[in-house]
Amino acid sequence: MFTKEEAAQLRKEFWTSFGKSFPRKWLLYNTQIKGFSFKFLANKKQAAVCLDIEHSDEITNELLYDQLLSLRSLLEQDVPEVIFDDTYELENGKIIHRIYIPFDQKFSIHNKNTWQACFEFFVEKMNLFEFFFYEYEDHIKQAIR
């Protein structure tokens, strides 16, 4: 068991190690679409690469998600393990639309032996997500024009 301070230090070390091992500028929040962002997720039990749709306007939120659903089969060709969840609940209780690729190996941010495989997963899958976004960016943005 870790103290809060030890756990916080391990999380910081995890993300610092990832950044140093794979120095690259990721798309993440720079999609130029409000409430539409890519994220890396890593905690005590799981890791994933995510695309979160959480626009403050409910109609825009639905339009963006529906637009991605229309592209689902194209994304699944490159990433068959992708999961579309239209009611994903965040830790704070907020419900969002999340499209994500779970890391299917045993993982804990508290176990340094699992980090390297997770880092490699992050790079591979986020590259696929970003390529998909750039390929279909105009189509996705049509939902909010």
Shape: globular
Overall mean confidence score, pLDDT: 96
Number of helices: 4
What is the chain-wise order of helices and strands?
A: HEEHHEEH
What do you see in this structure?
By secondary structure, the protein is α+β, with helices and mostly antiparallel strands. It has one domain (4-18, 27-144). The chain has four helices and four strands. It has a four-stranded antiparallel beta sheet with strand order 1-2-4-3. It is globular, with a radius of gyration of 16 Å. The termini are far apart. The mean pLDDT is 96.
Summarize the entry for a quick read.
45% of the residues lie in helices and 20% in strands.
Keywords:
145 residues, alpha+beta, 4-stranded antiparallel β-sheet, 4 helices, 4 strands, 20% strand, globular
Topology:
Blueprint: H1 4-21, E1 36-42, E2 47-53, H2 58-70, H3 72-78, E3 83-89, E4 95-102, H4 115-141
Antiparallel strand pairs: 1-2, 2-4, 3-4
Domain DUF4268: 10-136
InterPro entries: DUF4268
Protein name: DUF4268 domain-containing protein
